[in-house]
UniProtKB/TrEMBL annotation:
One of its GO terms (cellular component) is side of membrane. The chain crosses the membrane at residues 12-30. One of its GO terms (molecular function) is acetylcholine receptor regulator activity. InterPro entries: LYPD6-like, Snake_toxin-like_sf. It comes from Marmota monax. Its main location: membrane. The keyword Acyltransferase does not apply. This is LY6/PLAUR domain containing 6B.
């Protein structure tokens, strides 16, 4: 009789496990549980993996995406090549403001010389190009001459910028001394 009880218990445990797995899958794959439309691309931070070279960075990258949301959402998460310094965004849209294609990528300084917006009389489309400097800085789309710019950081990093580092051990002793 104890063998029959243990087989019954095992079957009940397996059934409970299967039900729990099914419930978790329903929550995971349910559209109402977590909506991808709620992604805040401004707070995206790349993982703390080793950088391939000093001052390396990442950009949102896509080619001929239909809209900015999908471009940012499915952007490849890879480091930019060493010969690039900026993130480039090229936005094509109609005279009514509807996006027709979006391309984002890592870019060299020479690729960023032609920023701004240009209207094509033949196709009645507008192309706006912008470049920016910094980790995944190309979140937004350029749509006019105000935001189709070449944005660079004014403060450059230098190797001697950590002048306060020698004071950290002294500061640590100030806080540790009362505990001793």
């Amino acid at each position: 009789m104890s063998l029959a009880c243990s087989i019954h218990e095992v079957r009940m445990l397996l059934l409970c496990h299967a039900v729990a797995v099914a419930v978790v899958h329903i929550f995971i794959f349910s559209e109402n549980w977590a909506s991808a439309k709620n992604i805040n691309f401004y707070n995206v931070r790349p993982p703390l993996d080793p950088t391939p070279f000093p001052n390396s960075f990442k950009c949102f990258t896509c080619e001929n995406a239909g809209d900015n949301y999908n471009c940012n959402r499915w952007a490849e998460d890879k480091w930019c090549p060493q010969n690039t310094q900026y993130c480039l965004t090229v936005h094509h849209f109609t005279s009514h403001g509807r996006s027709t294609s979006i391309t984002k990528k890592c870019a060299s300084k020479s690729e960023c010389h032609f920023v701004g917006c240009h209207h094509s009389q033949d196709s009645e489309h507008t192309e706006c190009r912008s470049c920016c400097e910094g980790m995944i800085c190309n979140v937004e789309l350029p749509t006019n001459h105000t935001n189709a710019v070449f944005a660079v950081m004014h403060a450059q990093r230098t190797s001697g910028s950590s002048a306060t580092t020698p004071y950290l051990p002294a500061l640590a002793w100030v806080f540790m001394l009362p505990l001793l």
